Structure formats: C-alpha cells, structure tokens
Amino acid sequence: MGAALAAGLLVRKPAARIVAVDPDPGRARALLPRGAAVDVRDRLPEAVRPALVVLAVKPQALPVALPPLAASAAGRGLVASIVAGARVEALRRHLPEARIVRTMPNTPALVGAGVTALWAEASVTAEDRQRCDALFGAVGTTHWLPAEAMIDAVTAVSGSGPAYVFAVVEAMARAGAALGLPAPLADVLARATVAGASAMLAVPGADPAQLKAAVRSPAGTTDAALRVFEEGETLQDLLSRAMEAAHRRSIELGETVA
Ligand SMILES: NC(=O)c1ccc[n+]([C@@H]2O[C@H](COP(=O)([O-])OP(=O)(O)OC[C@H]3O[C@@H](n4cnc5c(N)ncnc54)[C@H](OP(=O)(O)O)[C@@H]3O)[C@@H](O)[C@H]2O)c1
Description:
The chain is 51% helix and 13% strand. The protein is of the alpha/beta class. It folds into two domains: 2-155, Rossmann fold, CATH 3.40.50.720; 161-254, ProC C-terminal domain-like fold (Orthogonal Bundle).
C-alpha cells in the first residue's frame, strides 16, 4: 500500500521528493514501478524533515517501527497512519509531538481507483489536510470523517469491501459454470459484468436503485433473480451480517493494536 501511494503521487506530482524506509530496501524497491524516483533506505535518515510521514506497516510491526520515528524530527511533524486498527490515542503514546491523521484507504488504490477516509485530530492544520488530500487523492478520492470511531464502519464498507465484490465475481462464475458454461468463459463474463456495472456507477449522478430498476422488467429474468435476493435471508440481511462482523472485528483490533 505504501508503494502504491508513492507511485500514485509520482504520477500526479513527478517532482515530489519521496523517501521510503523499509528494513528490506530491495523488496521495497521491487514493489515500486521500475525507475521510480524514490529514495529507499533501510532506516530513517536523521536529516530528513518530511512534510508528511506515511505510516504503512502492518499493525504488529508498530512496536519496532515507531521508536525510531519518535526519536527523529520526522516524528514531530505530520504523520498519516494507514495502519488498520491503530487508534490515534495508541499512536500518540509513541509519537507525543506528532500531528496525527488516521486513514483507511483500500486496495483499488493500487490501480488509482481507491477511496480513502481520513480523520484528523485537533492539532492537524488546514495545510496538513491539503497535504493528505494531495497524497491520497493521487490514488483515488478522499473523504474526511467527523469522528474517529467512524473508521470502523468505513473499514466494513470500503476497506474490506473490495473483497466482497471479488467474492461476488467468484460466486457468479461458479454459478455460471454450474449452468453449463465453460468455467473460463463464466469467469470472463462475471468479471466483465462487474467491471461494466462499476463503470456505470461511476457516471456522475448514477443511482444504483434506478440502474437496477432499468434492467428489471416485470416477470423478466433479472426480476426472477432479484426476487431470490429479496426472499428469506435477503441479500441485504447477508451483507448487513457480514459488515457487522467486519465492524466488530475492526473495533476488537483497535483494542489490541500498539
Ligand atoms: N491492503 C489493504 O487493503 C489495506 C487497506 C487499508 C489499510 N491497510 C493497512 O496498511 C498497512 C500496510 O498493509 P500492506 O498490505 O501494504 O502490508 P505489507 O505489504 O506487508 O507492507 C508493509 C511494509 O512495511 C514494511 N515494514 C515492516 N517493518 C517495518 C519497520 N520496522 N519500518 C519500516 N517498514 C517496515 C514491510 O517490509 P518487509 O516486507 O520488508 O518486512 C512492508 O514493505 C497495514 O497496517 C494495513 O492494515 C491495508
């Protein structure tokens, strides 16, 4: 995710100066586009005073990654964390002088189509917010939240959400094969359908309810399928149950991280 952000920023702002810190610089470089102008180091250079630090390690790496950051000038500036479950209060214990922004991006950022929700604590300035918008806006859209607790709900919607869509594609492909299509063809049809439907949703003003109604002729094939979604445990019930589980898990993780 850190490499995707760096690559996205360089596309929008080729003059941006980026230092990446990773215990395995070779591996980190391999995640970046070939020739990307990123200075990859195995430790935080003492002299660097970045406009913005992005904390992009796994939650379990925080106890190792935070002390060198806290000991450097970089740890006294603007820090945007993408670490799932790491609450600002927990980060603050390690970074007492930082201005902290907590964010939840999602994996479509890897192809420039991400969506990132952000929450800023009180010390974060308007200029800090613009810097975060410039960075996360380089790989998708940004949305500021009025309360940190909303990050858990965002995680359930857009953080984990791409996996729900991938699961739908897998299920549609399997069901298509069960109806007699060659499996590769069912897979191609399911992917292209979700990609096409996503493109329709991306048209400004597109309304999913209207789009659905437009393909649902009374007593037609789509109507027959959608009726199944609306009977017994409905699609809404299933998704609500799944997203409540993601929400609960996000809250639990927040109680254990850092
Ligand atoms: N993937 C998502 O959809 C998503 C969405 C929202 C938020 N996030 C959050 O983003 C964070 C990163 O996720 P990811 O999927 O990008 O994980 P990842 O691919 O494992 O990336 C983490 C990077 O941190 C490096 N690292 C480990 N210890 C470090 C240290 N002490 N100092 C500096 N760098 C260190 C790792 O290097 P080595 O591999 O060389 O150890 C690796 O390059 C996670 O906290 C996750 O919760 C992910």
